[in-house]
Amino acid sequence: MISDEKFKKILEEFNKPKEEFDGKSYRERRKEWFDKLMEKIKQYLKKEKLEKLTIEEALFLYNKITVGGPKLYPSTFKQNGIEKIRKSLIYLLYKDDPIEERFYNFAFNFDSEYKLIGIGKNFASILLFLTYPEEYAIWNGAVDGGLEMLGLLPKREKGEHYGKHYLKINDAVKNLSKKLGLNDLSLTDEFLELIFHKKIGEDILKIIEEKEIKELTKEEKPDNLHTKIQYLLIKIGKFKNYDVWVAKNDLNKEYNGEKFNSLCLNELSKFTNPEVLEIAQYVDVIWFKKKSTYPITFFEIETTTSIYSGLLRLNDIKIDFPIEKSFIISSKDRKNLFESQIRRKTFISSGLDEICEFRTYEDIEDVFKKLEDLSKIDL
Questions:
Q1: What does DSSP assign to residue 295?
Q2: Cα distance between residue 367 and residue 262, in whole Å
Q3: d(CA 112, CA 202)
Q4: By three-state DSSP, how is residue 82 classified?
């Protein structure tokens, strides 16, 4: 964490009048463009209003809440149906379940009746912030990046779901707000975003770009390791009763005596336009809902190739199709690299940072072993 003196200097930059803003500071500009816009939205978030919300009003909320954020998918959001949208918004904002459970079920848990497709942590946290502005902070990739650069980003523990992690982020932002004397979570959000985008504090903070680690695991040759992890993801997908696509150029491979073309779809399901399908056919593994064209999860395995290349492929798809969940699979010593790359502006802009996670080879092996053991139990 940086010293109090450095915090003070960065805060001075935040409050300093800027010529390009007609003498207004970043602080004043935030109040003008964001807070005024959000005031128009708050009226739609009252419980009595949500109970009678129209689809047109729901789409208005959807588009306005993420202004300046990830590319929006109103047609996907509309597919939730107005009844589910009403129910889910009321659940997130007004039910008595613990906030971490409501946040997780609304934004991340695909098994929940309250999960809305086409939204993520940014949308959910802004809804909470607008309804309870002194209690809940906005959470997005830039907030993560700003906290990390200040040495304040809380660690997400293995197995910790995103609702519980949101509570940690929320506490970190609220503590920072008090430390800076802002006592305003909207201004603190702006402060963190400006830190992340190097608009303030760049000359004070010493940002060290992490270089990509080239050393590969010595237990197996990279090609064999890639094929093995593909095989395990195929088998896990089958265990979960999904249809599975494996990259077009890998369809004729085999592992453990099983040919991929006998386990997987022989043609990629037509889930979007031809241009995106052209890219998607080379994604290492995709799980689809059984007997449907709906993709559940996308996986890229990076053994010899860069983390960035896998993220770019997923990003090219995410720009035009609302991917709900994706993973980069690589060695554990590349996790820090993933975390720095996923916060690039292009991935925040597309929303990839909200739906892409990192898993190690060992994580995939552990899941496979547990499912394999479970399948052997005779009930």
A1: E
A2: 22
A3: 42
A4: helix
Q: Tell me if 164 sits within 8 A of 100, measured CB to CB.
A: yes
Neighbours of 87 (CB within 10 A): 17
pLDDT tens figures, 346-357 = 888 888 998 999
Instruction: Write down the residue that tokens 């009403």 correspond to.
Output: 86
Q: How far is Cα 307 from Cα 301, in angstroms, rounded to an integer?
A: 9
- Tell me the backbone φ, ψ of residue 360, rounded to 5 degrees: -90, 165
CA 117, 84, 46, 169 dihedral sign is negative
Number of helices and strands in the chain (H, E): 20, 7
Closest-CA residue to 231 (of 269, 209, 259)? 259
DSSP symbols for 94-125: H--S-HHHHHHHHHT-TTSTTPPTT--HHHHH
Q: Distance of CA 144 to CAs 150, 157, 206, 287, Å?
A: 10, 15, 17, 28
Other beta carbons within 10 angstroms of residue 18's beta carbon come to 14
What tens digit of pLDDT does each residue of 163-206 get? 999 999 999 999 999 999 998 999 999 999 999 888 998 877 76
Strand 254-255 and strand 258-259: the pairing is antiparallel
CA pair distance 37, 275, nearest whole angstrom: 36
Which amino acid does the sequence have at 201?
Answer: G
- C-beta of residue 50 within 8 angstroms of C-beta of residue 90: yes
Pair type for strands 285-289 and 295-301: antiparallel
How far, CA to CA in Å, does 110 sit from each of 188, 199, 224, 274, 346?
A: 31, 37, 33, 27, 26
Bigger pLDDT: 36 vs 317: 317
Sheet holding 295-301, edge to edge: 242-246, 285-289, 295-301, 326-330, 356-360
Rounded-to-integer distance, Cα 315 and Cα 307, Å: 12
For residues 275 and 273, what is the distance between their CA atoms, to the nearest angstrom?
6
Counted residue by residue, the chain has a size of 379
Please provide residue 211's backbone torsions phi and psi, each rounded to the nearest 5 degrees: -85, 145
Q: Check if the beta carbon of residue 176 is closer than 8 Å to that of residue 190.
A: no
Do 162 and 154 touch, CB atoms closer than 8 A? no
User: How is residue 275 written in tokens?
Assistant: 């241009």
Residues in CB range of 218: below 8 A, 6 or more apart: none
Contact 27, 215 (CB under 8 A): no
